[in-house]
C-alpha cells in the first residue's frame, strides 16, 4: 500500500480521500532535518505553506511520486528539482480564491475603519470615538496588481462597493480587464493614482520586491497597500520606513518575507498597519475545497491516473485533460511502438497531430508520445513530468506539426522516429472514442488494435508468404492471435502486423528474415 505524509494541517475531508488508497501519516511542524530523515518512506507528500520542500528534501524522497500543495502558491516547493526527478507537483488553483479575495477586502475595510485597533481599545475598557475616525472606500480608486482569479474577484466586489478600478497585469488583455470593470494601466500610474493598492500576483524573481522604496515613493500620502499574496513582494523594511515617516497612510499584510513573522519593525507600528498570520485561505469552506481537490489528485496519481492541476506538466489543465485523456494512452502506445521499430538510439521524433487534435491544446500528447518513446530506456522512471527533460538530455529532437485536414478519423496521431538504425512511422486513432487502433505502419494502411506482443514484417506481397511465416512461427510454438496485411499495391511491398500470445523466442527473427520475400522483421512488446 502507498504511503502519504501530510506535513501541514489539512481538513479531514482530504485525509478521508487519501485513506481510500494509502496509509496516511499526519506529522505537522516537522523540522527540515526530521522531514529529510523520514521522507524516503513516502510515495506522496501533502503540504500547505508551512512546509518548505527544498531540493534536499526532494532528493531524500526517493519514492516520491507527487507533492500536493493544498492551496495555490507553490513558491515553497522547489518545482524544478521535483520536475527533474519526475515528481508531479499539484495544487488547488481555485479552492481558496474566494477566501483569499474576501480576506483582502476585509483588510481594506479594516484599514479604512481601524477596526482591529478600535476593537482592542474597547476591550481594554476605553470608549474613544475620535482616534478611530475612518475613511470611505466608496468612489475611491482601487489598484489591483495581478488580475488573476483572486484579483478579479476582489475587483468585482470592490466595484459593487462603488470603487473605481485600475489594474496592472502584463499578461491579461485590455478586453478581459474591461469585462471586470478595470482600466489596465502600467504599474507607475497605478501606484500614483490609487487610494488602495492590493497585490494578487505570484512570488517570482520578477515580483520579489516589486514594491520597494522607489515604488512606495510614488504612492499618495493618503494611500494604503494590502498584501494577501506573498511575502517578499513588498520590501518590508522599506514599507516600515514609508509608514513611519508618514509617506503613505498604511498597510495590511497577511504574508511576510519570513513566516512566522519574527522580530520586525512592522510590529511596532500603530493603527496604520494590520498584520494577520497568513489567514487568506483559512476559512472552513476553502480548507475543505483545497483538501478535497488535492487529495483527489494524490489518490489519482497513486492509482496511475493523471492529475488535473499539475503545475509541472505544461498545458494539462482540467478542461484539456478531459478531452485529451483518451488520446494520452494512444500517444504513449504509439511512442513506445515507434521507438521499438526504430531500434537503436532515436535522434528525432516527429509528432503530427491530425484532425481534431491539430490544436494548441494537444501539446500534452507530444509529452505522452515522448513518455512512450522513452519507456524502453527508462521504464517507470519516465512520466509526463520529466519526459520532455529526459528527451532533451538524450538529444532527441522533437518536431511538432499539425494537420487539421487529415479527416479519416476524428483525431489521429502520426509519429515518425529517426534513429541510428533508420526511420519508422506509425499512425493511430481511437475507435468508438476509446479503443486504440493502429491505422498505419511505415506508410502501409492497417487497422489493428495493438496487443502486448506483436510482430511486424516488411515483405513482398506474394502468394505463400503468409503460410510460410505461419508454419515457421508454429515450429517455434508461437500462437498467432490475429494477423493483418497492409499494402499499397497488389504484389508490391507490404507490412504484416501479427498479434501473438507470448513473447517471441530468441533467434526467431533471423529465421523470419530468411523466408523468401521477407525483408525485415521487428518484435515489439507494449
Ligand atoms: N494569503 C493567502 O493565504 C493566499 C495567497 N494566495 C496567493 O495569491 C496570489 C494570487 O493567486 P491567484 O489569483 O489564485 O493566482 P492567478 O494565477 O489566478 O493570478 C495571478 C495573476 O498575476 C499576474 N502576474 C504574474 N506575474 C505578474 C507580474 N510580474 N506583474 C503583474 N501581474 C503578474 C498573472 O498574469 C495572473 O493574472 C498567489 O501568489 C497566491 O499564492 C492565494 C491564496 C491564499
Ligand atoms: O494558497 C495559497 O497560496 C496560500 O497562501 C494559502 O496558504 P495556506 O495553505 O493557508 O498555508
Automatic annotation (TrEMBL):
Class of this enzyme: oxidoreductase
Keywords: Amino-acid biosynthesis, NAD, Oxidoreductase, Serine biosynthesis
Superkingdom as given in the UniProt entry: Bacteria
Matches recorded under Pfam families: 2-Hacid_dh, 2-Hacid_dh_C, ACT, PGDH_inter
N-terminal signal peptide: none
CDD domains reported in the protein's UniProt record: ACT_3PGDH-xct, PGDH_4
Matches recorded under Gene3D superfamilies: 3.30.70.260, D-3-phosphoglycerate dehydrogenase, domain 3, NAD(P)-binding Rossmann-like Domain
The ACT domain, residue ranges: 454-526
Catalysed conversion reaction: (2R)-3-phosphoglycerate + NAD(+) = 3-phosphooxypyruvate + NADH + H(+); (R)-2-hydroxyglutarate + NAD(+) = 2-oxoglutarate + NADH + H(+)
GO MF annotation list: NAD binding; phosphoglycerate dehydrogenase activity
Gene Ontology biological process terms, A to Z: L-serine biosynthetic process
Presence of keyword Amino-acid biosynthesis: yes
Keyword NAD: yes
EC annotation from Swiss-Prot or TrEMBL: 1.1.1.95
Annotated pathway: Amino-acid biosynthesis; L-serine biosynthesis; L-serine from 3-phospho-D-glycerate: step 1/3
Function: Catalyzes the reversible oxidation of 3-phospho-D-glycerate to 3-phosphonooxypyruvate, the first step of the phosphorylated L-serine biosynthesis pathway. Also catalyzes the reversible oxidation of 2-hydroxyglutarate to 2-oxoglutarate.
Membership in a protein family: Belongs to the D-isomer specific 2-hydroxyacid dehydrogenase family.
NCBIfam families per UniProt: PGDH
UniProt name for this protein: D-3-phosphoglycerate dehydrogenase
Species of origin: Umezakia ovalisporum FSS-62
Amino acid at each position: 500500500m502507498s504511503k502519504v505524509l501530510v506535513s501541514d494541517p489539512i481538513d479531514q475531508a482530504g485525509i478521508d480521500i487519501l485513506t481510500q488508497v494509502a496509509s496516511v501519516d499526519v506529522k505537522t511542524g516537522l523540522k527540515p532535518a526530521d522531514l529529510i530523515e523520514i521522507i524516503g518512506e513516502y510515495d506522496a507528500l501533502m503540504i500547505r505553506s508551512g512546509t518548505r520542500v527544498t531540493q534536499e528534501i526532494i532528493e531524500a524522497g526517493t519514492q516520491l511520486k507527487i507533492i500536493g500543495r493544498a492551496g495555490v502558491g507553490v513558491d515553497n516547493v522547489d518545482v524544478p528539482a521535483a520536475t527533474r526527478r519526475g515528481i508531479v507537483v499539484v495544487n488547488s488553483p481555485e479552492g481558496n480564491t474566494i477566501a483569499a479575495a474576501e480576506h483582502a477586502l476585509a483588510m481594506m475595510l479594516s484599514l479604512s475603519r481601524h477596526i482591529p485597533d478600535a476593537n482592542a481599545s474597547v476591550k481594554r475598557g476605553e470608549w474613544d470615538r475620535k482616534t478611530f475616525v475612518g475613511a470611505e472606500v466608496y468612489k475611491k480608486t482601487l489598484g489591483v496588481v495581478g488580475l488573476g482569479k483572486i484579483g478579479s474577484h476582489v475587483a468585482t466586489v470592490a466595484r459593487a462597493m462603488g470603487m473605481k478600478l485600475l489594474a496592472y497585469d502584463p499578461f491579461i488583455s485590455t478586453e478581459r480587464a474591461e469585462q471586470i470593470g478595470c482600466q489596465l494601466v502600467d504599474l507607475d500610474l497605478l501606484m500614483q493614482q490609487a487610494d488602495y493598492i492590493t497585490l494578487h500576483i505570484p512570488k517570482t524573481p520578477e515580483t520579489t520586491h516589486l514594491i520597494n522604496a522607489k515604488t512606495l515613493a510614488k504612492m499618495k500620502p493618503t494611500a494604503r497597500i494590502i498584501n494577501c499574496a506573498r511575502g517578499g513582494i513588498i520590501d518590508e523594511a522599506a514599507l516600515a520606513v514609508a509608514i513611519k515617516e508618514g509617506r503613505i497612510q498604511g498597510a495590511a499584510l497577511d504574508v511576510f518575507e519570513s513566516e512566522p513573522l519574527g522580530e520586525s519593525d512592522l510590529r511596532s507600528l500603530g493603527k496604520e498597519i494590520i498584520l494577520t498570520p497568513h489567514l487568506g485561505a483559512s476559512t472552513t469552506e476553502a480548507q475543505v475545497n483545497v483538501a478535497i481537490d488535492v487529495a483527489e489528485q494524490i489518490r489519482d496519481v497513486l492509482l496511475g491516473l493523471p492529475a488535473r492541476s499539475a503545475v509541472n506538466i505544461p498545458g494539462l489543465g482540467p478542461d484539456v485533460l478531459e478531452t485529451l485523456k483518451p488520446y494520452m494512452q494512444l500517444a504513449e502506445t504509439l511512442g513506445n511502438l515507434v521507438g521499438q521499430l526504430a531500434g537503436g538510439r532515436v535522434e528525432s521524433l516527429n509528432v503530427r497531430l491530425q484532425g481534431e487534435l491539430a490544436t494548441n491544446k494537444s501539446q500534452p500528447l507530444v509529452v505522452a508520445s515522448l513518455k512512450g518513446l522513452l519507456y524502453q530506456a527508462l521504464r517507470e522512471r519516465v512520466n509526463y513530468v520529466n519526459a520532455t527533460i529526459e528527451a532533451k538530455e538524450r538529444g532527441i529532437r522533437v518536431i511538432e506539426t499539425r494537420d487539421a485536414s487529415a479527416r479519416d478519423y476524428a483525431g489521429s496521431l502520426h509519429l515518425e522516429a529517426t534513429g541510428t538504425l533508420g526511420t519508422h512511422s506509425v499512425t493511430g486513432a481511437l475507435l468508438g472514442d476509446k479503443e486504440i487502433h493502429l491505422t498505419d505502419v511505415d506508410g502501409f494502411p492497417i487497422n489493428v488494435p495493438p496487443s502486448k506482443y506483436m510482430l511486424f514484417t516488411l515483405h513482398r506481397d506474394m502468394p505463400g508468404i503468409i503460410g510460410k511465416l505461419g508454419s515457421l512461427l508454429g515450429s517455434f510454438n508461437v500462437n498467432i492471435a490475429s494477423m493483418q496485411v497492409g499494402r499499397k499495391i497488389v504484389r508490391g511491398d507490404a507490412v504484416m502486423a501479427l498479434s501473438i500470445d507470448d513473447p517471441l523466442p530468441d533467434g526467431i527473427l533471423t529465421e523470419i528474415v530468411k523466408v523468401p520475400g521477407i525483408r525485415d522483421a521487428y518484435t515489439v512488446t507494449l
